[in-house]
Amino acid sequence: xxxxxxxxxxxxxxxxxxxxxxxxxxxxxxxxxxxxxxxxxxxxxxxxxxxxxxxxxxxxxxxxxxxxxxxxxxxxxxxxxxxxxxxxxxxxxxxxxxxxxxxxxxxxxxxxxxxxxxxxxxxxxxxxxxxxxxxxxxxxxxxxxxxxxxxxxxxxxxxxxxxxxxxxxxxxxxxxxxxxxxxxxxxxxxxxxxxxxxxxxxxxxxxxxxxxxxxxxxxxxxxxxxxxxxxxxxxxxxxxxxxxxxxxxxxxxxxxxxxxxxxxxxxxxxxxxxxxxxxxxxxxxxxxxxxxxxxxxxxxxxxxxxxxxxxxxxxxxxxxxxxxxxxxxxxxxxxxxxxxxxxxxxxxxxxxxxxxxxxxxxxxxxxxxxxxxxxxxxxxxxxxxxxxxxxxxxxxxxxxxxxxxxxxxxxxxxxxxxxxxxxxx
Length: 425
Prior knowledge:
The chain is of the alpha/beta class. 35% of the residues lie in helices and 15% in strands.
């Protein structure tokens, strides 16, 4: 199938072609016609499947078609609301809107915490069509009466599973209560737990279901390997891998914020340009680190699980699990950062004695035994030094309320506001 067969407006097809795409991914082939037909949608899709374009492309088409064309519209209230769990994902989605809507007279804005609210208020007053937001900052705007959600025609709940993991369910219900009763609803989630299905039942009306990958399966385009070593050898082994394999763009996962900072410093000292990204970093620092990584100024980006959610990097070749996650589902999300949109990638996990239970859980979830690789000089010793027990691998405890915004506010008009130009031309 070719994008030209989906019935999208010529301006959108032109923008897609300029990005080098001609064939839609499986989720795009299924989701785009359903959204264009006005149906509610319940889509199960792993990261890297092209789901963001799967909803941004038909939404742009719908906004630019028919009697509600913005050229004939005077109202400044947003017509589309996309709710995302993290700042990084909000930025990514809004960038996708701008990329594919560049030839249309449509405005968009991403609002999230960690930056000053006043520039966002100013942009909202000028009028926008598509609003991408995190729950906490959106409710801040609602409380200050700086956003009007009464004209929302399409509501998108992106990465609903992560929303629940982060304790946003109460905020989501508050936001849904503010929306018009008559609207189109699109829900995307990597997994559909009973809690997600309950939420979908109250949100969606006779939805079209799209499932492009079996639940909790790892991307087929990612080569997965395990290097078993001792905990004390991990840092030296990681530096050795960088120096001997000529890696140039690697996303490294650490379990804690402190561990991510320490590992980034170790890599930097070894001459491997690195930065850490996690929830304690200001939004400005997180955005700079991610931009530098995408531009090739950083060789390694060391991230925690929540901070990495929503990171979308074209052709990212490698993901390294410096430490395994406690939740096996997070392993699937981690390695999904590479091997995206049909491209090949490699995921390597450094596993010590203490992490064998986590590895066993991961292999059980993905229903395969991962290939073991031995690196000479870094073999795992027969007798490991005991380590305090890890926290139980039970369900993640939801955070109370919404995530706190970082204290550091950016200057008005900075790039972190991610508002599109006055018009996409």
